[in-house]
Every structure is written in C-alpha cells, then in structure tokens.
Amino acid sequence: MHVQFAELPVCDQARAKEFYADNLGCAIVADEPMGSGDWRWIELQFSGSETTLHLCQANPEDAPDEPVLVLVDDDVAAVVEGLRTRGVEIVTEPHNPAWQPGRVVAEFRDSETGYHIVRMSK
Fold first, then answer.
1. What average pLDDT does the segment 70-91 reach?
2. Quick check: 44 and 27 in contact, CB under 8 A?
C-alpha cells in the first residue's frame, strides 16, 4: 500500500508547476482540464517516489504559517545552494536542530506566498 497523491494548496497552478519542475526536478505526470473553470488536474512527482503532489486550489486567506511539506534529501546543503543559485528564497539556512539530533534542516519559500518547505537529511 502507498499514498497515491497528497494535495498541495496553491494560488497559481502554472506558477507552482513551474517552480516544482524547474527548481526541484519534479516530473509532470498529469495536467488535464478539470471542471468548467480554469483549474486543471495537475500532479507532480519527485524522482523515485510513487506518491504525487496534486496542485489543488488554495484560499489565499488560509495560507499556513508552518511548513506544509517535508522533503528528504541526503545533502541538504547542496540542495539549498542549488535552490539559491536559481533565485529561491532560503528562509532558514541548513542547521542541526536540537529537537532532531543527527538531522540537518533548512527552509525555503516556494512560489506560493506563505508556504515554507522543510528539507531534512535522512
């Protein structure tokens, strides 16, 4: 058993799709019309993952003030530097948090205002 998709609320699907594909290497596995409006069914997939991200419509007034997605990578510092060279805002530099010994944590802001993503080493 596995999770088929997780929803990531976004205000601008095209902008979010571009951010995740260009900066984090996500593959676009679905991008189809959905309903009668302009919203589409968009699913993105990280390399090596079965679970996809469904970019669903967010209410901008409900933007969370905590991270909504936790990504895992073996080399957090290298990922952060790669994001930085692409112009991505780094919110918290890589560091070892007291609350998770042996892990490195950093935060960056994605294309949708108010969303932070935490990246942790294994």
1. 92
2. yes
Q: How far apart are the first and last CA of the chain?
A: 22
Alpha-carbon radius of gyration of the chain: 15
- Residue written as token pair 């991505």: 88
Residue 34 φ then ψ, to 5°: -140, 110
Q: Is the pTM of this model over 0.70?
A: yes
- pLDDT score of 41: 96
> Which residues, including other chains, have CB under 8 Å from residue 70's CB and lie 6 or more apart?
117, 118, 119, 120
Sign of the CA dihedral 39, 5, 64, 17?
negative
Q: Which residue, 69, 80, 59, 66, is CA-closest to 114?
A: 66
Helix (H, G, I), strand (E, B) or coil at 36: coil
